[in-house]
């Protein structure tokens, strides 16, 4: 996301968030985020209880995009890990209105099972299969090159579950994003953009099907210190509690003002950025800054050929690092604003890793950050 053009072309929801970890490939990037956030996916209530799994995918011409469980969330053409000998349900949703189907193949390329074709965007179908030796991959018949991924058979006795509880210094549950190795999850459904609930579930991120070994753990949410640690899986399920301390950014050294319009940010103040489109923000590492912004378009979403959109939560302000989609890390992410003319102020401490700012609902509204 300097890289302004790369940010616009290669972005995916998971890449934007990191607050949403690494994308395995970028075949589906660029369009996946917009489709994935607004389709009502059926998500599994549990991920691994020693029985079959429910896996959810989004199908677009650029590639299959993982939805659930957490290990495939946002990944392009992800490996589908199936417990050998168990029945599994694979649910997939048409993300772009093109003609797709889901086909399982063996090691010789022979078809094992296949769903009917689906042509309506947002329509879902499913396939229930018993994971057996010989299963090798999956693909879409009309798009066999772009939409193709591997199948991995897993012995349930060799994998375990890790539960990560997140709390603040007072011991209260805290909605945060949790990374365990290459896997990502939220500690609370309410931490997901647009997923607020009246009664939030316990702040626990669940990771299943982890093999024995040592894993890096990273936990973060805006307004709190990041926590990094390691956890070891050794023959049994495990639990880990992460306590995040609140941060106090201090008085702003500078206040920037911007207005979010369709496809762009427009500078308002100070004079150095006034009326500029996606102006570069000049920051100094270690200093506190305030960003005041106005949502000038309400809940409006960009239109596109062959796309039908339900309203997303609105628009927000995000700061992330540079690099390709599999390298991005999010450092600031504000709440979503849905009302036209609504304003918000975000305070943050500049770090050298910050490189771009954007709106998650309009991925072409991207500007650069220059940190000295």
Automatic annotation (TrEMBL):
A GO molecular function term, named singly, is: electron transfer activity
In this chain the Blue (type 1) copper domain maps to 89-152
Annotated Gene3D superfamilies: Cupredoxins - blue copper proteins
Instruction: Give the keywords, sorted.
Output: Copper, Metal-binding
One Pfam annotation reads Copper-bind
Superkingdom classification of source: Archaea
Metal-binding as a keyword? yes
For this protein, the record's InterPro entries field holds:
BlueCu_1, Cupredoxin, TAT_signal
Q: What is this protein's record name?
A: Plastocyanin/azurin family copper-binding protein
């Amino acid at each position: 996301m300097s890289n302004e053009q790369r940010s616009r072309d290669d972005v995916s929801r998971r890449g934007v968030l990191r607050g949403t970890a690494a994308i395995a490939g970028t075949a589906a990037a660029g369009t996946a985020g917009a489709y994935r956030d607004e389709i009502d996916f059926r998500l599994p209530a549990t991920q691994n209880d020693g029985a079959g799994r429910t896996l959810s995918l989004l199908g677009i011409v650029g590639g299959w995009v993982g939805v659930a469980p957490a290990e495939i969330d946002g990944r392009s053409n992800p490996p589908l890990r199936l417990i050998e000998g168990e029945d599994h349900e694979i649910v997939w949703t048409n993300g772009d209105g093109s003609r797709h189907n889901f086909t399982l193949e063996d090691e010789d390329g022979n078809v094992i099972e296949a769903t009917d074709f689906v042509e309506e965007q947002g329509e879902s179908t499913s396939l229930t299969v018993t994971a057996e030796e010989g299963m090798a991959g999956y693909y879409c018949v009309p798009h066999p090159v772009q939409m193709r991924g591997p199948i991995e058979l897993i012995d349930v006795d060799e994998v375990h579950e890790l539960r990560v509880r997140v709390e603040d210094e007072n011991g209260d549950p805290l909605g945060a994003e949790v990374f365990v190795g290459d896997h990502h999850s939220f500690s609370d459904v309410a931490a997901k953009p647009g997923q607020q609930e009246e009664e939030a579930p316990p702040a626990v991120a669940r990771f299943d099907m982890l093999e024995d070994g040592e894993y890096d753990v990273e936990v973060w949410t805006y307004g709190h210190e990041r926590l990094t640690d390691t956890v070891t899986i050794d023959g049994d399920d495990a639990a880990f509690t992460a306590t995040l301390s609140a941060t106090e950014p201090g008085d702003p050294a500078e206040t920037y003002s911007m207005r979010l319009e369709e496809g762009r940010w427009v500078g308002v103040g100070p004079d150095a950025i006034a009326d500029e489109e996606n102006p570069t923000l000049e920051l100094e590492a270690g200093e506190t800054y305030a960003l005041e912004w106005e949502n000038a378009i309400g809940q409006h979403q960009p239109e596109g050929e062959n796309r039908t959109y339900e309203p997303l939560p609105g628009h927000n302000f995000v700061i992330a690092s540079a690099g390709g989609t599999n390298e991005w890390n999010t450092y600031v992410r504000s709440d979503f604003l849905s009302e036209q003319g609504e304003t918000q102020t975000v305070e943050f401490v500049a770090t050298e890793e910050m490189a771009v700012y954007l709106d998650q609902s309009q991925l072409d509204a991207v500007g650069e950050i220059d940190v000295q």
